[in-house]
Fold:
Amino acid sequence: MKKILLACSAGMSTSLLVAKMEEAAKSRGLEVSIWAVSQDKANADMEKADVLLIGPQMRFLKKKFEKTAGEVGIPLEVIDSMAYGRLDGEAVLNRALDLIGNH
Structure:
């Protein structure tokens, strides 16, 4: 099972995106665990994840999370702002799976 962590400012704006990603995964028969947390909880949750995706509004925090992501050995990327804005769960899910597969 792939574990995908999303982080945003308060952990709320990504909850709709998580639901869309879960729908996309279910329609493809994929077993994934996807959850969203606020920025202050992301470091703690990284240990349980295979990838961390950061909301575009938190782009400036990428360097802060890179240290922990490197220590726990997971890829990290800022979510594409177009996919985020459109709540394109399929695109974001595909990118997360690519990052996990290439890691």
About this structure: Residues 1 and 30 are 8 Å apart (CA to CA). The two ends are 15 Å apart (CA to CA). The chain is about 50% helix and 20% strand.
